[in-house]
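FORM 7B: Structural annotation worksheet

SECTION A. Query
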Amino acid sequence: MIDIRLILATTDFSEHSALAVQAACQLSARLGAELHLLHVLSEIIPAGPDPLLTPILPAEYYTDAEEKARETLERFLDPTWSQPRSVSRFVRWGSPVEAIVDHARDHPVDLIVIASHGRTGLKHALLGSVAERIVRESPCPVLTIRDRDRDRVGSPAVSTP
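SECTION B. Predicted structure
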C-alpha cells in the first residue's frame, strides 16, 4: 500500500501545468497530504560559438527572476480548487528534470504530479519529454496529467463543472 503524505506538483505557470497543479491540490486535499509547489528557473547557457562572448547577466537578473517566480507561486493556486492541508512553495535553478528529481530526493516526496504535453513524433524527438525523464529518474511514483481537449487540433480546452 502506498502511503501518500507529501505530493510534489511542478509548474511552469502555463495553463497546461495548472491542470496538473489543480489535480495535485485535489489529491492532496482528499488524502490529507502536504503539497509542495515547485517552479524551476532555467539557467542561461551560452549558445554561441565562443562562450566568452556571451554577455554576463547582472546578479539582479537572478534575484529579480526568483522574486517574480515566488510572487507568482503565491498567487498560482485558484481559491476555487480543493485546498491542501498545507502548501510549501519552492523555486529552484537548473534543468527542470534534475531540479524536480533532486527536490523529490531532498524531501520525503511520495508522489510527483506533473503535466505532460503529449508531444509525439518529431516534436518529441527534438524537444524530448521532461515528464518522461522524470518518470524514469524519480525516486517515487509520478502521475502525469494531460489535457486531452487541448491536445486535439483546433479544440479549445473545455471545463466542465
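SECTION C. Observations
The chain is about 40% helix and 20% strand. The helical segments are 15-31, 59-76, 96-106, 121-127, 130-137, 148-151.

SECTION D. Sign-off
Analyst initials: ____
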